[in-house]
Amino acid sequence: MSSNYNYKLQIVQLTKVFQGRHGNVVALEDVNLTIMEREFVSVVGASGCGKTTLLRTIAGLDTKYTGAILHDGKPVTGPGSDRAMIFQESRLLPWYNVRDNIGFGRRNDLQRTDKGEMIQHYIDLVGLAGFEKAYPHQISGGMAQRASIARALINNPEVLLLDEPLGALDAMTRLRMQRELEEVWRREGSTTLMVTHDIEEAVYLSDKVVVMSPRPGRIEKSIDIPLPRPRNRSSQNFHLLKDEVLRAFDFNGPSAEYGDQREAK
Predict the structure, then answer these.
(1) Overall pTM surpassing 0.70 (yes/no)
(2) How far apart are CA 154 and CA 151, in angstroms?
């Protein structure tokens, strides 16, 4: 099997089959995907198409599959601190305050003073200064998710895996968190793979949007998002790219002739 060491992540002919009581279920079939260093890639697709399963295999949480997952050209064989995963729910420990929850994610390889400074750095990074001593039940869902992001980042992961990280938030909080997530990604530089059902969110945040087919999950289409940052959601090019993703689902959208306006510019 050949690999390209310029890729941060390389998924090669990945197939995942679950054994159920009523027979086998093919969740992923012959998935091939490459992600460059510092790239932000979003995966969109119908529920049940294997998006979360894909993240779990990359995280090393599920190793029973055929094919290969390569990180810096080396096979992924299990979990590691070089990869961090953030879920839709913040999953904060209710008996820890914000500061302790964030610090809980850090490996014990630092002096207490250094670890304290690092925790404070990530508290400041995600905008939680002043809430260090608050407990999960005392903060909003958006703030809890910020703490979850900080907890994932504190080990400086090379790859950040996001499983619908903003899906549980209200619409206004979600828009604000999208801007903040982009800023965190820009400052930290982690290669990022995000699963989302929100196509506008995918276009807003991503360098590339990958569309998956219904089960068994395959890569249906990969769409580059060559828009300057910060992005203007009301611009014509933004809407043309959003429509291009929608057309990949065979939803009614602009004609191909209309879509070609983007390439002509």
Answers:
(1) yes
(2) 6
